[in-house]
Amino acid sequence: MTLQKVSQIFTKILLLALHTKLFHIVLLAIFLTIRISPIYSQEIPKNESVSITELGVEETKVSIDKDSIKKKKNILEDIVKRKAVDYEKMDQVKKQLTLYNQAELYYTDIELKAGIIVLDYEKSEVYAGRIKDSAGNYTQYPIFKQGSNIIEPDSIRFNFKTKKALVWNSRTKQGEMNIKAEISKRENDSVYFMKNARITTSKNIEDPEYYFLVRKVKFVPKKKVVAGLTNLVIADVPTPIGLPFAYFPMTEENTSGFILPTPGQSNRQGYFLQNGGYYFALSDYYDLAVLGDYYTNGSYGLRFESSYAKRYKFNGRANFRFENNIQGEKGFPDYVKSKQYNLQWSHSQDTKASANSRFSASVNLGSSQYFRQSVNLANIGSGLNNNLSSSVAYQKTFQTVPQVNLSLSATHNQNTNTGIINMTLPTLQASVDRIFPFAPKDGIKKGFIKNINFQYNLRGENRISTQDSLFFKPQMFRDAKSGFQHSIPLSTNFKIFKYFSVTTGASYNEVWAFNTIDKYFSSTENKVITEDLKGFDSFRTYNFNASVGTTVYGTFKFGEDKKIQAIRHVMRPGVSYGYTPSFERYYDTYAIDATGNTYQDFTRFEGGIFGSPGLTNSNNLGFSLSNTFEAKVTDKESKDGTPKKVMLLNNLNFSASYNIAADSLPWSPMRVSGGTQFFKNKMNVNFATTLDPYAIDNSGKRIETFNIDNGGSLFRMTSTNMTLNYNFSSNDTKKTKKSEQTLQNGGREDDLFGTGVDLSNSNQSLFNKDEDEKSDSKGDEWYNTKLPWDLRLAYSVTYNNSNRQDEIVSNSLMMSGNIELAPRWKVGFSSGYDLQQQGVTFTQLRFERDLESWRMSFNWVPYGTNTYWGFFIGISSSVLSDIKWEKRQLPDRVFQ
User: Residue 380 is inside which H or E element, if any?
Assistant: First the structure.
């Protein structure tokens, strides 16, 4: 169309009847206005004016502000990242994006992987599903992940806006729980609804050995599962065990709750409920479990267990147990009431917590008969132990020059046979680092003068000795002894004749005592009275010592063509000398009878915690000889012919001493000890013997006559002992587990005295941790040729002839072993035989069946004072540890 002049157009229009063509005039004006005006594809620039003065009408300006126009919200809130192997198809009509084969889609915090993914960006929905392979099998199941929640369904439909989802055959894991549901509906981030869900702790979620079938479920991730009608299904067989509703906690944090007790029956205490109580999840750093037992005859028990930890700071555990045991009926002769308690506390500090200070604790104290009389404990290794010990210590290092070390500790030692308790409350120790006054600041310390050094040590104690019946009662503090010891050792070392090392020194000791004694004969009581005195007193002693030693090497060669090519012998002889003078000034005398004519020496510091000054001179010469023997043998496995070293004797030591100042019997008995290993270090053999050069009279007293001059041999063997340990297994590299609880109780670290059983936690395995790891084999078939096994042997013999007894004091053999009959069957035993008493020692038999998610065990002590048996079957997971059945017969305790 040709654009004509505007004036001509309007001239023609004015010749017409305008009142009849008003619509056409207005339409033409609009058209012409649009035609000559700038046209914008999107928005008009701000304050842009459109002028129509050329149209012959009144000038008008139209102004449009772009901020006044509301933007349309984007369909997607974030960038969609995707990829696929086969193709990515975009359908603009349906507004869909299709990804096929190993498809992946990432949007906000959502990750989706599947065989096929369809994204409908108009509806803000995504669909994911499986695809079939060439064989017609479904592969590439969807994996939907949002945050830490992961769902693996057959297919899923998800809406980005509403955050709702519909899932078919979803599979998810929450803590130890695996959940699979036919249909799942996601309402929001925190609520899911499921239909026909399977809840199990089995690792095989597709074919679990057991599961809880729930018709309707409300699932809140990491918090809880609220279920409707629930049934337990074992091996796809429904059981009558069910609940109209169920609640499963799913939180990853500790949650407070009740602990269900275990019912049972005891021969002497009647029916009981054991190990019931409440668990307090106090914080992320510490917790508390309160457990109790009740027996129908009135006996009861209480236990408090707490664990605490702070990363990079410290961790620890504290247990307190109390039992009030009753036997018989009140008023009858067999009525016995016994109260036993035990306190355990272990604390360790992380090395990163502090470089210059450290606090540690290992406490095990209580009634001497607790481990033997407890009716809720079956730890034989702890019961056979006759010693309990504790230590709580704080150490501090001051980085001064010289360095100063300070420690404050409390110790406890208790003999469970005698009931005697020795404690230090507290012990103070301080020391100043070694000082070399004549050595240069830089350079090598060489020679007698430059190596002269001294230290300062301080030790203070408050020592208590009492009986366990008086423990922490006022009586135990009355006989406490206190004191301080100061010591300054001075020493130096140097070489003479190039090959001899000489060490010489002296020591000064000063003791401050707050407890002394006085002895006198009382004519009234007609006996010697020892009176305890309170008050400050002190004594000072000193001594001198020196030693010379060297090392001698010898090699006996037999030829490189021999099986044993050479034997290497290393000797380390040494001679030492020590002198301590007499300190008679600290001694007094007292009459031993009413006549007053016979007196005896004594020191008021007798029985002090740091000893007492000596009355006689001590002038000793010591002799020692250390030997090692090593062979160089031909190694058939070596490709280059390099021989290998074999240790023949790890050590063979001789030691004796001669007292120059002694009036008689100056020679001490010679001590001989040694040890070696055999069979690739599997067998350890250690032996020791005492040889006395003097003879004895008819009463067994040593006399001033050498044994060889009395018609005997050069030495008279007074005692000897030998121990042998042999560990071997089908896997030579396997290590034996150490039972931390048994060790803390003072028992052995192996299972030669049986495996301790924690009756409050029957889910624990009876076998070593390494053995409890599930086999790669999923079947129950028996092994064809090789059975995993291990065996430990311990033999000990002691001979005594100090008074011509010529007898074997002890002679025993102990053994323990385990064998895995099938991938999930384990059998173990612990036993022994006393060759001296000719009887079988403590014996324990252990059986265990691993049922994947379940565990079945049987523990049996067939005879003896600790006769016991216990059967357990239950779910291994701690989440469902209350789903179990156990039956046991505890040993009959004899209370005192």
Answer: helix 380-384
Q: Looking at the DSSP assignment, which residues form a beta bridge with residue 468?
A: none
**Residue for token pair 């003479």:** 496
The Cα–Cα gap between 159 and 137 comes to: 28
- Phi and psi angles of residue 76, each rounded to the nearest 5 degrees, phi first: -105, 145
Q: Is 739 exposed, middle or buried (0-12, 13-18, 19+ CB in 10 A)?
A: buried
- Both tokens of residue 609? 């915690």
**DSSP label at residue 44:** P
Residue 212 in tokens: 């809880």
Q: Where are the beta strands (DSSP E) in 122-229?
A: 125-129, 131-132, 138-139, 143-146, 149-151, 155-159, 165-174, 177-186, 192-200, 210-220, 224-227
The span from the CA of 397 to the CA of 430, in Å, is 10
Contact by Cβ (8 Å): 275, 881: no
Given a contact cutoff of 8 angstroms between Cβ atoms, the answer to whether 854 and 209 are in contact is: yes
Q: Which residue has the tokens 């072993």?
A: 817
CA distance 291 to 103: 54
708 in Cβ contact with 716 (< 8 Å): no
671-687 burial: b if 16+ Cβ within 10 Å, else e: ebebebbeeeeeebbbb
- What is the chain's alpha carbon radius of gyration, rounded to the nearest angstrom? 44
Q: What is the 3-state secondary structure (H, E, C) of 590-618?
A: EECCCCCCCEEEEECCCCCCCCCCCCCCE
- Tens of pLDDT, residue by residue over 43-57, are 444 444 333 333 333
Q: CB–CB of 117/110 below 8 Å?
A: no
- Closest to 611 measured CA to CA, from 583, 591, 578, 590: 583
Are the CB atoms for 817 and 829 separated by under 8 Å?
yes
Residue of 754, 696, 695, 750 whose CA lies nearest to 727: 750
Res 445: pLDDT: 79
Contact status, residue 448 vs residue 494, Cβ threshold 8 Å? yes
In this model, does residue 733 exceed pLDDT 80?
no
Angle in degrees, CA 537, 542, 546, rounded to 5: 160
Distance, in Å, from the CA atom of 667 to the CA atom of 656, rounded to the nearest integer, reads 8
Angle value at C-alpha 345, between 339 and 350, nearest 5 degrees: 175
User: What type of residue is 885?
Assistant: W
Contact by Cβ (8 Å): 871, 860 = no
Identify the H or E element spanning 553.
strand 552-557
- Does the predicted TM-score (pTM) go above 0.85? no
pLDDT of residue 758: 59
SS3 769: helix
Beta bridge partner(s), residue 602: 588
Q: How far apart are CA 763 and CA 768, in angstroms?
A: 14
The pLDDT tens digits for 232-272 are 898 888 888 888 887 766 666 777 888 888 888 877 788 88
CB 155 within 8 A of CB 138: no
Cβ neighbours, 10 Å, residue 639? 6
Please say whether the beta carbons of 124 and 118 come within 8 A: no
Tokens of 311: 């990363």
Which segment of 7-16, 272-281, 691-700 scores lowest on mean pLDDT?
7-16
Tokens 């960006």 correspond to 121
CA distance 751 to 580: 48
Reported for 285-291, long-range contacts at CB under 8 A and 24+ positions apart, including other chains, are 285/309, 285/310, 287/254, 289/259, 291/259, 291/760
Closest CA to 881 of 773, 775, 758, 767: 758
- In terms of C-beta density within 10 A (0-12 exposed, 13-18 middle, 19 or more buried), how is residue 274 classed? buried
Domain architecture of the chain: domains with CATH? 6-68 (no CATH), 81-204 (2.60.450.10)
Q: Which two tokens stand for residue 290?
A: 């309160």
Residues 6+ apart with CB under 8 A from 374: 321, 323, 340, 893
* 589 or 270, higher pLDDT: 589
